[in-house]
Amino acid sequence: MTATTPGPAQQTSPTFLGMPPFPEAAREALGRTTQRRNLHHATHTIRAKRAAVVGEVDQWEQLRLAGEACKSEALKHLPYYLEQLEERLTEQGATVHWARDAAEANRIVVDIARAKGTDEVVKVKSMATQEIELNEALEEAGIHAWETDLAELIVQLGGDLPSHILVPAIHRNRSEIRDIFVREMGQVGRPAPDDLPADPARLAEAARLHLREKFLRARVAVSGANFAVAETGSLVVVESEGNGRMCLTLPETLVSVVGIEKVLPRWDDLESMLQLLPRSSTGERMNPYTTVWSGVHEGDGPREVHVVLLDNGRSHALADTHGRQALRCIRCSACLNVCPVYERTGGHAYGSVYPGPIGAVLNPLLRGVESEVDQSLPYASSLCGACFDACPVRIDIPSLLVEGRERAVQAGGHRAEAAMMTSATWVMSDHRRLEAAQRASSTVGALRGGRPFRSVPGLGAWTSARDLPAPPRQTFRQWWENEHQRPAGDESEGNQV
Predict the structure, then answer these.
(1) Which domain holds residue 458?
(2) Does residue 351 contact residue 16 with C-beta atoms inside 8 Å?
(3) Final residue before a domain boundary, out of 316, 333, 367
(4) Do residues 287 and 162 share a domain?
């Protein structure tokens, strides 16, 4: 294992495919009424399903604590568990590669595909490969990457971007999906029937027939992993459609791109994780397909297995003693489904493959706060706290968002706020300045007669949605001085402190 701690400047492009900062992107997204309607319906449906299956578990909070402890243990001793994982995988015939960043990971996968003489690969849904923009790298090398997850297929055929961690096409409705299938499937394989209805079962059938020829033809598959067990050298993928099982078993060569934070210390840790993940993500008691593979086994599955362990800023996040808890994320998307901001703007506004509350803290940790996109993300929240309540591994997202805002201010991304904080620091660092400021504010409060401010220069946007209370006519310090200047012997009620 080569030790490396890349800084955020070494990562991929600072904006996701050139998207604008969150406020601009959100303003545009709010104008898409169909998308807002689709998001509202989908998130509330998933939310209700999750609430029902979580309510069945008497010890849900104990499960959350177990998940938190397991992931925290892995992160605390990550170098040890990564080396153990590499050792176990190698013992079982897999080849382990280490990738410092996106460019290195993409180069490894492209080289493997070229060595196999193929011009196409089939893919299991993977956030890590989206993060490093592997599909684009493969296409540039003349290798077609076919997404086989239904939602990912919809996004790919529509020339779209994923907008949700679990359901990338959550912003599309049935009619839109039908139109995409009829228009695009014939361009890259078996076409959809011209009379295809906007019926979920028929849409799934069209996707299945379109993908079947690709499954049977592909010699190389690319996957991610939900978990990587260090003790046994096992990779785990959970999914609901069976496409993952096809990718993981049919091709001769399997390449798995796995973020280094996906490691679990022990096999027994899956007991809690495989209860937390399906309930929090799809609202199911268990996933229909749970595939576990450990290296190469004669006559069973791929003949060649490559595992690319990806850093791409994770070491930078790990070095942040408070922020590292974001690496506990198991990509369940529960925080997205309860977030009032995400529900209204959708995932594209976050400028990353990781949208929603967890994306708002994870992206700046992985990429730094040099870009306007990453400086704006910590503000994409009402700080209502619903994300922490929903998180199965108890990531304190609200406190990380507040900390992220502080980093954004220090980076100079919010000059007005930075100037205000600098001024407040100067005033509060000397009691005489503070007392003078308090006297001035009391004078203003008396002149206002207790009436709130409807608009404040420099804070117009903030005060357009709320009133800024007028300062009190008398500060506590002034009240105290007045009370203690009363004549000796005055024992009236007002003198009792």
Answers:
(1) 433-495
(2) yes
(3) 316
(4) yes
CA distance 142 to 119: 6
Residue 263 has phi, psi (to 5 degrees) of: -70, 135
Assign residue 22 the CATH number of its domain. Answer: 3.40.50.10420
pLDDT per position as a tens digit, 342-394: 999 999 999 889 999 999 999 999 988 878 888 899 999 999 999 999 999 99
Backbone angles phi, psi at 10, to 5 degrees: -85, 0
Average pLDDT value for the chain: 89
Ramachandran angles phi, psi of 126, nearest 5°:
-150, 120
**In this structure, are 181 and 41 located in the same domain?**
yes
**134: nearest Cα among 167, 158, 156:** 156
**pLDDT tens, 173-187?**
999 999 999 999 999
Whether residue 159 is predicted with pLDDT greater than 70 in this model: the reply is: yes
**Cβ contacts of 460 within 8 Å, gap of 6 or more:** none
CB burial of 98-118 (b: ≥16 within 10 Å; e: otherwise) equals bbbbbbbbbebbbebbeeeeb
pLDDT 10s digits, 86-131: 999 999 999 999 999 999 999 999 999 999 999 999 999 999 999 9
Q: Strands 227-229, 289-293: parallel, antiparallel or unpaired by DSSP?
A: unpaired
Return the half-sphere exposure (C-beta side, CA atoms, 13 A cut-off) of residue 473: 6
* CB-count burial class (<10 Å; 0-12, 13-18, 19+) for 385: middle
114 within domain boundaries: yes
* 304: β partners: 253
The predicted-structure confidence for 243-282, as pLDDT tens digits, reads as follows 999 999 999 999 999 999 999 999 999 999 999 999 999 9
Counting residues of the chain whose pLDDT is more than 70, the rounded percentage is 90
Neighbour-count burial of 30, counting CB atoms closer than 10 A to its CB (0-12 exposed, 13-18 middle, 19+ buried): middle
Q: For the chain, how many structural domains are there in total?
A: 2
Among the three residues 295, 316, 337, which one is the final residue of a domain in this structure?
316
Q: Report residue 430: phi and psi, to 5°.
A: -140, 125
Residue 326 lies in a domain: no
Are residue 311 and residue 450 in the same domain, yes or no? no
First-to-final CA distance of the chain:
66
Looking at the fold, whether 304 and 437 belong to one and the same domain comes out as: no
Q: What are phi and psi of 431, to 5 degrees?
A: -65, -30
- Sheet with strand 289-293: strands edge to edge: 263-264, 227-229, 234-239, 289-293
Is 67 part of a structural domain of the chain?
Answer: yes
Q: Are residues 440 and 312 in the same domain?
A: no
pTM equals 0.84
d(CA 301, CA 246): 10
Task: Tell me how far apart the 2 most distant CA atoms of the chain are, in Å.
Answer: 100
Whether residue 51 is contained in a domain is answered as: yes
For residue 414, is pLDDT > 70?
no
The yes-or-no verdict on residue 57 having pLDDT over 70 is yes
